[in-house]
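Appendix B. One record, verbatim.
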Amino acid sequence: MFQALFNSLSGLFSFSRSLDTVSNNVSNMNTPGFRGSDSFFANIDGGYGTQIAGQGLRPQPGDMRQTGTPTDMAVEGEGYFVLRDRSGELHYTRAGQFRFNDSGVLVDTATGYDVMAIGADGGLTQIDINAYRTMEAKPTTRVKVGGNLVTRTVTTTSPATPINATMTVYDTVGATHALSVVFLQTDNIGNYSLTIKDETGFTVHTDTVRFSGGRLLTPNVASFDLSYAGKTQEITLDFGTSTSGLTAMTGVSDSPKLSVEDGHGVLGISSMAFDDKGILRLSYSSTETREGQRVALAIFPNEGDLRLAGGRMLDNSSIREVEHGRAGQGRFGRISGGSIELSNIDLTREFADMIIIQRGYQASSRVMTVSNEMIEQLYNSTRGG
């Protein structure tokens, strides 16, 4: 009878602790990246009573939810994000709610810990956007010339009329300069002189553009140098080819078109996103992009033996072996940018566990009551009443 009392008492303690685990699961159902736990019962040595032998982490991933925040990330498959605290200790999480702090470093929103990137040598470094905030100026090097120049009959009494066009180019420091381009028909077979002047009216280049039957003849490019801010840059005018380029046709209006194909001033970031490999992609314009650092991931030999600390991060004391790597390589999963992973808590399962725990607790309590009544009856019978 006394053993039954102790057995039932151990059952009450164990079911109570198991309910603590369930309550923690339910309370964290909205915690991003949370992994639910299960309590494991075991018989006490000697064969009497029960105890909680330990807990196991549920490795199943939670559902993905898009947030629209470019710095949020979720792992599709195996892998944990790597965080580093101020003392240099590493932590691991599936909760990819990140942001760039005032110092330009990507950090975890809940803890402020640095999010780690992995370099080409496998080393871990913080993700710092400061080196990528701007893209340096790029000078213009190429201009495409198209459209049409009308060939007319030129005489001494009816001279040719200059055809004007303009283009805006960038110098080496990103400043813009407006250049004027003047085409002038020089004969009746379709040859044109080309004159390029800067903002001051100074002639920076002269050349000749030759046509036959309205089609370009080679050479179909013209190159010239400009000097700004003490630096010289070469610009090439590309007139196209005889089948696709500047023409000199009659019956068509004068319409030379100058398209600057490259060059820009100092550009700031217009958008950013992490791709499925965890690489930070930065856009500065519709044509100018840049590749930043790559997020580091970590995997463990047995995820079920790990412990969560604070609901979001793995407890360092439970981590014995870890492998760092890159998303999309080997066992490592891929990154879903602009998304977060929700907890993997299934309320239906938790409610079912609560019912089982409640029944077990009630049964243990009933055994304790019966044992107590029997012991009391035994004591009463010894009083010689």
